[in-house]
From TrEMBL:
Domain Peptidase S24/S26A/S26B/S26C: 22-107
InterPro entries: LexA/Signal_pep-like_sf (IPR036286), Peptidase_S24_S26A/B/C (IPR015927)
Pfam families (alphabetical): Peptidase_S24
Descriptive protein name: Peptidase S24/S26A/S26B/S26C domain-containing protein
Membrane-traversing stretches: none
Organism: Lacinutrix venerupis
Domain of life: Bacteria
Length: 121
């Protein structure tokens, strides 16, 4: 009976690497400087499963410096504190209210406004 022989597998001689472009002229002085992109979800959102975005459709909240086309970042998991802005449901519509200690009526709070992204256009 013949002994099985081990055969070496030959590596392919084809080159699949992408050729780098040949540079002409001087390179940019900023090629060594690389700034990572800012991910606004990482910076502005603490609890992603309970954070929502609402775009304001009119100028009815100018008293709170919230204008048309601003984006509200709202966290429903936070408990509102004194002097914070919240989104509340009043008369079957969303409304913005500033929480203070001497609120005398029952309020259905939908979430706490954590950031307001202003529209400049």
């Amino acid at each position: 009976m013949k002994k099985p022989q081990a055969h070496l597998i030959e590596k392919s001689k084809k080159n699949y690497r992408v050729q780098r472009p040949v540079q002409t002229g001087f390179s940019s002085p900023a090629t060594h400087y690389h700034e990572p992109r800012i991910d606004l979800n990482n910076v502005l959102v603490k609890n992603s499963s309970s954070t929502f975005y609402i775009r304001v459709v009119d100028d009815s909240f100018k008293d709170f410096k919230v204008n048309k086309n601003d984006v509200l970042i709202i966290d429903k998991s936070l408990t509102p504190k004194n002097n914070q802005l919240v989104v509340a449901i009043q008369e079957d519509a969303f409304s913005i209210i500033r929480i203070n200690k001497n609120i005398d009526k029952q309020i259905q709070i939908w979430g706490v406004i954590t950031y307001i992204i202003k529209s400049v256009l």
